[in-house]
Design brief:
Probable fructose-bisphosphate aldolase class 1; EC 4.1.2.13; FBA_I; alpha/beta; Aldolase_TIM
């Protein structure tokens, strides 16, 4: 089991490839559709994801895995082809989001706790039967004048560990996502505070993973980058973000972890790409770094598609471009000039 889990993790971290996060909940995708005046219908959700998954060059050359929702894992394209079959043809590993969302933590700290452990063992068995090779669970950590509390960090770390060991029991690689979100109180969410909180969260997460008996060689980490809050006046350089993020990871992430795939966390498309590329230009890291982006891969493609199947070719060109740029970033060879020229 250990060997097969590590093999899946290594394939997800194949050089120059990354993970497409296409696991938007119905509520989240409704908000994205609303921005381009589209209703949130089953057929439109299907068409949108079909457009992404049938972007042949992007999927075969730059994407190693796709995080799906329960709906999408069992969904079929308009011609009746299962999405799982489309991904298999592109040699892309299907993954599955298994948490049930983040809910208010008891108390007055404005924090959240992720739920979904009840019945997870049975659900994972089913997902494995459907071909899921990896899974994702997102913990949400808030920064404000009283948060994060020790209780919230420990509770989310414990849930991540329980999720991870259940995944490995089912033969599924757990992607562990403890996200320090960027929309906290701007007066408290400095880059310095983000670095300290991110380090604390990672330290507690790996402590719980070890206590639970999780095989670190059969998992992946999906963390936030070290950034000031999105409403902060701080404007760090790309190099500073890269340096601070790598420093925190070196201090708190064991070398046994096969790889790190970052979330984009509210960054613009180019910011997410440039920060990743700069991190990959820093030498001496014990693990490869790549992307596990949602919005930062899909933004332009979503607007170009605009709910019309006849726009598939143009939208696929836009998606392929962003996938290629992030592939270059995963290799540390991206430049803004290359991006704009392409």
């Amino acid at each position: 089991m250990t060997k097969s889990l590590n093999a899946i993790a290594q394939k997800l971290m194949e050089p120059g490839k990354g993970i497409l996060a296409a696991d938007e909940s119905e509520g989240t995708i409704a908000k994205r559709f609303a921005k381009i005046n589209l209703p949130n219908s089953l057929d439109l959700r299907r068409d949108y994801r079909e457009m992404l998954f049938r972007s042949t060059e992007a999927m075969t050359s730059y994407i190693s895995g796709v995080i799906l929702t329960e709906e999408t894992l069992e969904q079929h394209a308009a011609d009746g082809t299962a999405f799982r079959a489309i991904l298999a043809d592109a040699d892309v590993i299907p993954g599955i989001k298994v948490d049930r969302g983040a809910f208010p933590m008891p108390g007055d700290s404005g924090e959240k706790i992720t739920e979904g452990l009840d019945g997870l063992r049975q659900r994972l068995t089913r997902y494995a039967e459907l071909g899921a090779g990896f899974a994702k669970w997102r913990a949400v950590i808030t920064i404000n004048d009283v948060a994060p509390t020790r209780n919230n960090i420990r509770a989310n770390a414990h849930a991540l560990a329980r999720y991870a060991i259940l995944c490995q029991e089912a033969g599924i690689v757990p992607v562990v996502e403890p996200e320090v979100v960027g929309d906290g109180d701007p007066g408290n969410h400095s880059m310095e505070r983000c670095a300290a909180v991110t380090g604390d969260v990672l330290e507690n997460t790996f402590k719980e993973l070890r206590l639970a008996g999780v095989d670190l060689g059969g998992m992946l980490l999906k963390p936030n980058m070290v950034l000031p809050g999105i409403n902060s006046r701080e404007r760090p350089s790309v190099e500073d973000v890269a340096r601070r993020t790598v420093a925190v990871l070196r201090e708190h992430v064991p070398a046994a972890v096969p790889g790190i795939a970052f979330l984009s966390g509210g960054q613009t498309d180019e910011e997410a790409t440039s920060h990743l590329s700069a991190m990959n230009q820093i030498s001496g890291k014990p693990w490869p770094l790549t992307f596990s982006y949602g919005r930062a891969l899909q933004n332009v493609a979503l607007r170009t598609w605009a709910g019309r199947r006849e726009n598939f070719p143009q939208a696929q060109v836009a998606f392929t471009h962003r996938a290629r740029m992030n592939s270059l970033a995963a290799l540390g060879t991206w430049t803004g000039e290359l991006d704009r020229a392409a």
